[in-house]
Structure formats: C-alpha cells, structure tokens
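thread: overnight batch results

M.L. [08:02]
morning all. the overnight job finished for the chain we discussed friday. pasting input first so we're all looking at the same thing
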Amino acid sequence: MKLEPLISLARESIESKLEGKKLEVSEKIKNEYSKNGACFVTLTINGSLRGCIGSIVAHRPLWMDVVENAKAAAFSDPRFFPLTKEEFDRIRIEISVLTNPKQISFKDEKELLEKIDNKMGLILKSGIFSSTFLPQVWEQIPSKKEFLENLSLKAGLSKDAWKKSEIFFYRVISKKES
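M.L. [08:03]
and the structure it wrote out:
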C-alpha cells in the first residue's frame, strides 16, 4: 500500500483546518483508500512528539480515518496545545495503518513475554481501562517487560497490571514524511 498520498492528505487536512478552509479530497484518493481502515497519525517536530491520535479498529474508509486522525493529532491531543500556524511547516507526519487486533492467549507472564516481539503494536485491556503502543515505541522501550509495564501505567493501572490483563497485538505499515 502506498502511504505517500495519505501523508499528503494528512498535511492538507491539518492545513485546511488551520486556515479555516474546506478540505477538498480527490475522487482518486477516495476510491483508492475507500476500504475501512484504522490508522494512527503521529506528528513530530525536530524528532519530538507533537501529537498522536488514531483508531484501533477500522470503522470508516481509510482516507476519512487519516483526515480525522490528522486533525485530532494536531488540535485535540490532550498532551499538547493545539498546533499553531508557526509550527505547521516544522511538523513531520507519520502514518501507521493497522491490521485488525488479535488477542494473545497466555497462561502466565513468561508465555506472554515469549509470544510478543518488537514488530507488534500492543493493546492492554483491563475492565474499563485500556492503552496501546504502536510498534515504533519499541525504539524507546526495547525491553518486553518494561514495554508492558509502561503500557499498564499508560492505562492508569499499576505497572504489573499487564500480568492479569487482556493483551492484543496488531501489525502496522508505516511511513514517515522526509
């Protein structure tokens, strides 16, 4: 799957919102990316995170998921102030398209640690709490145990919550803007 057109679409959707203009999406893009898809849009400035919002489950055409998640990453990520016009030219966009999540069955923590790898995005679910890390997070947290502990903390749980939680995995196809 070619992701360059989706990176351009993400940039155009952010720019149109910044300028208060209506986004015009070509029929070619709508047709090419019409299947339901789930994606994350990650924004960075000088290599530092500036926003990241996405969908775990495909629930709308991929092109639409890119548009909505790009705007949300730029203007609605609760960790950051909304993106400004001054920052717009400095952001770099990364699109990650996700496969459907699959649950990992495990009887104990040792088995789970054996079943996961650094190409997986992981989802942790425990009651009403959940969190996810894209596979790219393995670059910052290469230890499997630490990865799961941080995933637990991100969900608002104790660092050992992963041992008794449901764990799902997905794969991604991703592309960074150069």
